[in-house]
Amino acid sequence: MNLFDLKGKTAVVIGGSSTLGGVMSEALAAYGAKVALTGRKADNAEPIRERIAAAGGQARCYGVEATSRSDLEKLLAEVEAWTGGADILLNCPGVNSATPFFDITEEEWDRIIDVNAKSVMIACQVFGKHMVERGQGGSIINLSSASSVTPLSRVFSYSASKAAVNNMTQFLAREFAPAGVRVNAIVPGFFPAVQNRAILSEERIASIMGHTPMKRFGEPAELQGAVVYLASERASGFVTGSLLRVDGGFGAMTI
């Protein structure tokens, strides 16, 4: 028995053009899933599609605004036409900001909450309803953050948005369980990417290392096992509502 066989499954990755989303998409494809990659422009995800194709996998790129219900509904229709439906949803769009609290504008707050939290809610409505009504189960995986549990300094809006992702994950796990649709979140520690490089000063890096028992940043590929595990019904069929840390021990650190 192959616990991680995803052949015959279709994975939709919102934010598949991102650093972490792309690497996780490659893992889903490597284990047999057909992958629908999204970015604000379809071309943004093309390098990921090319890597998946070169490795023998199947993927298509779609231009999608993650906060647009109409875009996500159109995406679902296109995925249904391609493969018959979606079995796996990976939500990993994300934006960040290091604006001091008293300087945060309503516009900045709205932008971060919209991209990081509202997009997850809408995607779970559109694709979650599809999975529930389809009656074949499914797996929804949300990308959270170490800052979702105990908020990190300097990233107020981001922390609040990711705390909302955790709450939605556990709420929907309970709601969707009778239909066999599992909802979990991956809680990464520090994985340097385009999204967060701007806030990684030398001082902040030193502080992160001091609070990470493994004394290093994560490599994007180290998220691949977690996403394949949560996507596979054979491997994690009784796992729902979980917040799976992949953080080098950051969440276990005290003094």
UniProtKB/TrEMBL annotation:
UniProt entry tagged with the keyword S-adenosyl-L-methionine: no
GO terms classed as biological process? bile acid metabolic process
| Keyword terms of this UniProt record | Oxidoreductase
Which Pfam families did the record assign? adh_short_C2 (PF13561)
Instruction: Tell me which residues make up the Ketoreductase domain.
Output: 9-189
- Asked if the keyword Cell membrane belongs to this entry, the reply reads no
GO MF, any single term = oxidoreductase activity, acting on the CH-OH group of donors, NAD or NADP as acceptor
Q: Which InterPro entries match?
A: KR_dom, NAD(P)-bd_dom_sf, Sc_DH/Rdtase_CS, SDR_fam
Q: Which PROSITE patterns match?
A: ADH_SHORT (PS00061)
Q: Which family does it belong to?
A: Belongs to the short-chain dehydrogenases/reductases (SDR) family.
Xref: PANTHER family: 3-OXOACYL-[ACYL-CARRIER-PROTEIN] REDUCTASE FABG (PTHR42760:SF115), SHORT-CHAIN DEHYDROGENASES/REDUCTASES FAMILY MEMBER (PTHR42760)
Q: State what protein this is by name.
A: NAD(P)-dependent dehydrogenase (Short-subunit alcohol dehydrogenase family)
Q: Which organism is it from?
A: Cohnella phaseoli
